[in-house]
Design a protein that fits this description.
Elements (H helix, E strand, L loop, with lengths): L6 H42 L7 H13 L7 H34 L11 H16 L4 H22 L2 H4 L5 H30 L2 H12 L7 H28 L3 H6 L4 H23 L5 H13 L4 H26 L7 H24 L1
Helix pairs in contact: 1-3, 1-13, 2-3, 3-9, 3-11, 3-12, 3-13, 4-5, 4-7, 4-8, 5-7, 5-11, 9-11, 12-13, 13-14
């Protein structure tokens, strides 16, 4: 037996609904600001604390001395300005890039499993980089360039395999079908590339294999100001592209038919989102290696925290994950592992695997 609501109760429910939707943007902004504050606090902890502690007055003394050419603190100036600070800056940038990349893929395909880690783009970078290290003896920038080219090439291959009428025309469920094909194509190619990486590792000598293994796990050990400068230039181009795509992407969530009816060029928008997301993942991977699961984790965590899909929140969560994981890997893990310093990707991988299982379990419960 159902109970009919009175007109007064219906009006009250309607007012509550309108109030909820009016309050939603301010709530998202407030929680995004909390995430930004968390990144700032973690950045300060990363730079000031750890194996070498620097007080706040000493930090500003070092910074002013560098900018004005004045007095420096021997030892501390080098550790802060050439080790901790560039490492923290690159950690923020690659975390934000991975977070934005995962957020773009997950929002466009409406699937929390759609991230560069899962659909093969990171494996493309890994296969190209390991091939460059093992076969050609590449180091430094050459490895980064190979990773960048591998990620872009594999992304183009995945897009070509998955491309069908649904990516170029409207259709209620065609966009979802295209997204599923893209994910399946990426998973298949990722499996093949994983075999390529394993083959290359078995052919390498011990020293080369060790270098390749460090890169494969994702590491900030090679962070320097030159790499930070190149990464910042790439983000200066890609972040405005994300901002420009945010509006059409939000409309695209309504479905292909509705988006086309509102004047959105569905096929072009999907292609632009894919290119931008791939470029973000590629430059981040080229800078620090395939740091596992950051792109996968950032979007769902941001969505649960802000109660709404948000690209800025995804970027901030990605930055927070990388900074926290690298701090744990460099400062806390050695205390538990007899001085062993772990690559940041080991920590993020340890976080990502149980989160993936939890996501699958909760999804199954919803479908049941």
């Amino acid at each position: 037996m159902t109970t009919l609501e009175s007109p007064a109760e219906m009006a009250l429910d309607s007012n509550r609904t309108r109030k909820h939707w009016r309050e939603l943007p301010s709530r998202v902004l407030t929680r995004t600001a909390v995430l930004a504050l968390g990144v700032v606090v973690m950045f300060a902890i990363y730079v000031l604390l750890g194996s070498y502690t620097v007080t706040i007055p000493d930090f500003f003394k070092i910074l002013i001395g560098l900018l004005t050419g004045g007095e420096r603190i021997p030892g501390a100036s080098f550790i802060v300005m050439e080790n901790k600070l560039p490492r923290a800056v690159i950690g923020v940038m690659i975390g934000a890039a991975f977070g934005l990349s995962g957020g773009l893929f997950q929002t466009m395909l409406r699937n929390p499993l759609a991230s560069p880690d899962v659909i093969g783009i990171s494996y493309g970078a890994s296969a190209a980089a390991v091939t460059a290290i093992v076969i050609f003896g590449a180091t430094g920038p050459a490895v980064s360039a190979a990773a960048l080219g591998g990620a872009l090439g594999i992304a183009a291959l995945i897009y070509a395999i998955s491309r069908g009428p649904s990516l170029g025309s409207g259709g209620g469920n065609r966009g979802n079908a295209a997204g599923n094909r893209l994910i399946l194509a990426g998973v298949g190619i990722a499996a093949a590339l994983h075999a390529v990486v394993n083959f290359m590792m078995t052919r390498a000598d011990i020293r080369t294999a060790a270098d390749a293994l460090v890169w494969l796990n994702g590491s900030l050990n090679s962070a320097n100001w030159d790499r930070a400068g190149m990464l910042s230039l790439a983000l200066l181009v890609l972040v405005p592209a994300v901002i420009a795509l945010a509006g059409p992407l939000r409309i695209l969530e309504l479905g292909d038919d509705a988006a086309a009816g509102l004047g959105i060029r569905v096929g072009f928008t999907r292609l632009a989102v894919v290119v931008t997301a791939v470029a973000l993942a590629a430059v981040a991977t080229a800078a620090a290696g395939p740091v596992s699961f950051v792109a996968f984790l950032a979007g769902p965590i941001a969505r649960r925290f802000t109660r709404k899909a948000s690209l800025p929140a995804s970027a901030l969560v990605g930055a927070l994950i990388v900074l926290t994981a690298d701090y744990v890997a460099a400062n806390l893990a050695p205390l538990l592992l007899d001085g062993t310093v772990l690559p940041v990707g080991v920590i993020t991988g340890a976080l990502g695997a149980p989160f993936l299982l939890w996501l699958l379990v909760t999804a199954n419960r919803k479908d049941a």
